[in-house]
């Protein structure tokens, strides 16, 4: 469970920053939603104590030690948290691929033991396959992820995007997309920003946030920076010295496999041009095709009535791309 803002620290000065601060102050006054509340489009829920106590009590420390953490870059800068990717890796090296705006992504490694235990438990609870996980380590309250919608070119249609939170509680902020505002109020100022429907959902240790694709289509989500001194935070926010590990499990329908005798990869499945492994094409890096996929990601980020078949239906064989100073900013993905 995207670009403006892949900065390791917030931008300086400017009226934009002042508007954002005003919006953040207003945002903090919103009521908190939890289990049983209607969240976003109603296809999304928060479940507490999702893992059994014996696993929940050790999962954070085990993951911090067993996961191979990476620094990921977007638009030339470090994203403000550590990341790792794991998935179902077959004996021939084939594995699911989840694509989103980044200069490049960490390698997909096989599920480690603790991730496997968590995945099995969550998959049974949801009655849904989960073959891929994006793991993120929020080291302090200053680490964050910008407002975005997840990119669904590779996500099996009709499935849920599932986020498991371990460690310190952070707040998920959901907001309807700007294009849902009436035309006369879709401006840039903070007052217009507050007209977007906004919800806040605390994500405590051992909770599951299961997001439906209708919510992902019509709302953005983010984990905003919280730079308050740790001693001014609640006990659940201070837990694990303010560190949080986030596991975003997905059911992915697009796959990569190494080309035998070569260092290159081939791609097939839901989000690729070739739909079967036998017809798989060699991956593309950058170029016009990369720019086209970045543009498609931007549309999904902005449009409440995103036409999946029209934009993604033909598929794309792009794997890596770097967009330098082109088009509007797009957010990174959780």
The overall number of domains is 1
What CATH first level would be assigned?
Answer: Mainly Beta
Number of strands: 18
Mean pLDDT: 86
What sequence of helices (H) and strands (E) makes up the elements? HEHEEEEHEEEEHEEHEHEEEEEHHE
Q: Which value, in Å, is the CA radius of gyration? A: 19 Å
End-to-end span in angstroms?
Answer: 7 Å
Q: What's the main sheet like?
A: 8 strands, mixed
CATH architecture: Sandwich
What name goes with the CATH superfamily?
Alpha-ketoglutarate-dependent dioxygenase AlkB-like
Binned strand content: 25-35%
CATH topology: Jelly Rolls
- Based on secondary structure, the structural category is alpha+beta
Give the uncertain stretches in residue-range form: 2-20, 323-334
Helical amount: 10-25%
Count of runs of 4 or more consecutive helical residues: 8
Q: Label the overall shape.
A: globular
């Amino acid at each position: 469970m995207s670009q403006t803002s892949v900065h390791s620290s917030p931008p300086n000065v400017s009226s934009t920053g002042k508007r954002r601060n005003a919006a953040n102050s207003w945002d903090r006054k919103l009521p908190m939603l939890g289990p049983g509340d209607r969240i976003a489009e109603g296809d999304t829920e928060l479940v507490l104590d999702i893992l059994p106590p014996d696993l929940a009590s050790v999962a954070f420390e085990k993951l911090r030690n067993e996961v191979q953490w990476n620094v990921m870059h977007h638009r030339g800068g470090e994203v403000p948290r550590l990341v790792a990717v794991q998935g179902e890796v077959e004996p021939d090296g084939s594995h699911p691929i989840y694509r989103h705006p980044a200069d490049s992504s960490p390698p997909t490694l096989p599920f480690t033991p603790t991730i496997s235990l968590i995945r099995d438990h969550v998959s049974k609870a949801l009655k849904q396959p989960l073959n891929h996980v994006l793991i993120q380590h929020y080291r302090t309250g200053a680490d964050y992820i910008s407002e975005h919608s997840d990119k669904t070119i590779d996500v099996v249609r009709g499935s849920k995007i599932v986020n498991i939170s371990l460690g310190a509680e952070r707040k998920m902020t959901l907001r309807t997309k700007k294009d849902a505002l009436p035309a006369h109020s879709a401006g840039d100022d903070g007052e217009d920003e507050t007209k977007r429907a906004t919800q806040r959902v605390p994500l405590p240790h051992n909770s599951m946030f299961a997001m439906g694709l209708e919510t992902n289509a019509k709302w953005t989500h983010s984990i905003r920076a919280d730079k308050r001194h740790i001693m001014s935070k609640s006990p659940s926010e201070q837990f694990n010295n303010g560190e949080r590990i986030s596991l975003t499990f997905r059911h992915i329908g697009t796959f990569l496999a190494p080309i035998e005798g070569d260092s290159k990869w081939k791609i097939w499945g839901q989000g690729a041009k070739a739909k079967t492994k036998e017809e798989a094409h060699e991956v593309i890096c950058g170029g016009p095709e990369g720019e086209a996929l970045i543009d498609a990601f931007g549309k999904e980020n902005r449009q409440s009535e995103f036409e999946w078949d029209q934009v993604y239906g033909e598929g794309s064989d792009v794997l890596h791309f770097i967009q330098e100073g082109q088009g509007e900013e797009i957010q990174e993905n959780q």
